[in-house]
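=== RUN LOG ===
request id: a7f3
mode: sequence -> structure
chains: 1
length: 84
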Amino acid sequence: MADQKVGTVSHYYNHLGVAIIEVEAPFSVGDTLKFVKHEEELFKQQVASIQVEHKQIVKAEKKMSVGIKVDKLVHENVEVFKVT
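=== RESULT ===
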């Protein structure tokens, strides 16, 4: 099964190591996400936590804007896929 696009990075807070993702399809804590720029995989990582307005949630739903801690620097417009 192909990986599913779940969103796009809209902002990255360098001092926090947090990416803001505009969610297009649901994903949850524990899922593995893949960050892709121009069809090149940057890195994969498991979701440890998801936050909305500084509150922890366990599942990101479509049309939400959520923050997740990322292991590496990402830029705006990087696509995010759930690894299946």
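=== NOTES ===
The chain has one domain: 4-82.
Residues 3 and 83 are 5 Å apart (CA to CA).
=== END ===
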